[in-house]
Every structure is written in structure tokens, then in C-alpha cells.
Amino acid sequence: MVYRCVFLFLSLNLCHLNTVCCHLSEVELESQSGSKAYAASEPQEPGCGCQTSRRDGVGANVGENTLISENPADKYSKLANEKPETIPERDIRSKLVLLKGGWFLMGTDDPAIPQDGEGPQRRVWLDPFYIEEHEVTNEQFQSFVNQTGFITEAERFGDSFVFEGLLSEEVKSTLSHAVAAAPWWSPVKGANWRHPEGPDSTITQRMKHPVLHVSWADAQAYCVWAQRRLPTEAEWEYACRAGLQDRLYPWGNKLMPRGEHYANLWQGEFPGHNTAEDGYVATSPVMSFPANGFGLYDMVGNAWEWTADWWSTRHTTDDKHNPRGPESGTDRVKKGGSYMCHKSYCYRYRCAARSQNTPDSSASNLGFRCVSDPDV
Ligand SMILES: *[C@@H]1O[C@H](CO)[C@@H](O)[C@H](O)[C@H]1NC(C)=O
Ligand SMILES: [Ca+2]
Ligand SMILES: [Ca+2]
């Protein structure tokens, strides 16, 4: 399939057409608003990178309710509803942590990246819910695939976005092009969750690492199979904050309390030099860093995490009960940043930070975790 990446000079509007669309979140938002809040000289992480072309079946303007026949989740939704016994005897799903909910303050009035819609801060009420203590791992996803025969979107379409710094020379030599505004992202043929850096890579030594290269629908399909669901953005953020108010990170305001690393991020200079001072150049096994006050791991860093919500950068300050985001949209919200995030270009490893991708996007730094309702 053909990739044609468009960026910088094209606004988000192009993404509304059911055409090829490359999506560079900040850059687009910047060009839309004309804001110079982001220094042009700083390299910027394009969310999960230049996105693959708008794939067939998942049209740009279709609402959630119209994503029926082409939505891989749909099949598994039925499966899960009709045959709950498809859950294996040995339950491989993540441990759930019960969060009691109540009122909390979502977003921030002191946004580091205002064009992402980090603000304003608003009061949100959440009913109690369970959340998985860590990102869904390769092992867990493998188990799901073994039992269902599920095929991810990246597998169906034959490629996915990989951070070039992780590619072998052999794969690099086959690349046709990268994304001009974010040359560290490349669509790589044969890259998918089983082969995160392309055909010559495997996950066999990484079964406890977060699964990558999963689209929104792939993530949704897993959660439905697990008889769970994707978290709303509000639930995710509440879980990230762990009861702390007005703090940047899940553990407080200091990035490295007592000089310790609390998340798998990027140290050094992006994108050329990763010192891996935190012990990891790319993903880490889940739970390698301290849990937050709710007992949740890697809420920021390691892999970005899909949420259920459509993306919008406009929020009212009205109190909200169990908000589910906009009714429709073209992109889904992702939270938490990844091992690729450095303050210089992707200061998004904060609870209020957010970014977005088209639902059919997949990349080498994007995963997910599921939540569950107490009466299930
Ligand atoms: C999935 O199936 C393969 C092949 O049968 C097997 O080797 C592997 O252990 C299974 N993995 C999981 C996590 O169930
Ligand atoms: Ca790291
Ligand atoms: Ca994460």
C-alpha cells in the first residue's frame, strides 16, 4: 500500500477527507492556530509519528456507532457477550485495582503545551472503577491472539511506524522515505506487535513488555475479549494522579525524587542520543519503575496508552459526571507519553498531558491498558 505523508502545510481539515493523511499533531495544531508556542527549532514528537494512510473501512468522519462491520472489536464484542467461557482457565489478564472515584480536578490551568488542550482545569466526578495495574503485555496479547486468531490492523496492512533509532541497518536500507518533519519515524514493512522493529526483530525476549503497534480498534478488541473496556480519558487521568492534586507527575512535581527514575523516559538528546540512564533504550518490562499511590505502574512513560475518548482540545469548566469526551471525532486521545519522551520535544509524561492519533494508527511506542466496571 502506498504512503503519502502530508504535514506542516496541511491543516487537520485534510484528515477529514477520506484520503491519505499524515498526522503530525503538534505541527498541525500549531499551523492551525498560528501559535508559536512551540519553538520551531525544537524537534517535536508527532504523537506516534506520521500516521499510516487512512485505512479502508475506518472512514474519517464515521462516528463510533457507525463503526460496525469493519471494526475488529465488533466481532470480539459479540464473542465476549455470547461466549464468556472464551476466557481461559488460567486467567492471564492483568490484576485490577479498584479506584473509588469521586470528584477530582482534571487538566491544568498551567498548561505546558496549551495547544494540546491540557486546560482548563475542571471538576470531574467519576463512579468507582477498576483499572489494570500495568500496560497490556506482549504475553497477554499473545494469549488473546492465540485464542481468537485476532489479526491486528498493522498486520492486515503490512506495516507500522517505527522509531528509526531502533531499526537495524538492514531494515533502514530498505526504507523508502521517512516523515520529513519527523525523520525519526518510518513506516516499516512487516513491523507489527510480533516484530516491533520490522521482520528481523521479535518479542521473544520481551514478553513482559507492553504490546506495541496496536491500533485503537486492536486495543478495544483485546479489552472487550477480556470483558473489560478502554478507560475514558478522565478515568485514565484520575488513575494517573493517584489522589494528588495539581501535581505534574503521578508521584508529585519533581521528575526524579532523590535522584531516582520514576518512569521509563528518554535521557540524553532526542533523537540522536539516548543515554538510557533509566536502564532502558526502548520499552521496559511492565512494573520496572515504582507504582504510583494507587498501585499503578508506568502510567507515564514506557508506552503511550490509548483511551476511549475522541480528541478535542476544547473543554468547558462545567462540572462533569463520568465524561466520555466528544460524541465524535477523527482522532482518539492517548495519554502518558512514552520511552521516547524528553522534555525538549515531548513534555507529555505528565498526567494532564495528552496527544492524539487516528484510530487506525499504530507505532513502536503506543500501547494500552483496560478498565472494568465494578458490577461486571
Ligand atoms: C500461543 O501459542 C503458541 C503456539 O501454539 C505457544 O507456543 C505460546 O506459548 C502461546 N502463548 C500464549 C501466551 O498463550
Ligand atoms: Ca528510557
Ligand atoms: Ca504508559
From TrEMBL:
The gene is sumf1. One of its GO terms (cellular component) is endoplasmic reticulum lumen. This is Formylglycine-generating enzyme. One of its GO terms (molecular function) is formylglycine-generating oxidase activity. It comes from the Eukaryota. Keywords: Signal. It comes from Chanos chanos (Milkfish). Residues 1-22 form the signal peptide. It is found in: Endoplasmic reticulum lumen. Residues 95-371 form the Sulfatase-modifying factor enzyme-like domain. The keyword Signal applies. Transmembrane segments: none annotated. It holds the Pfam family FGE-sulfatase. Belongs to the sulfatase-modifying factor family.
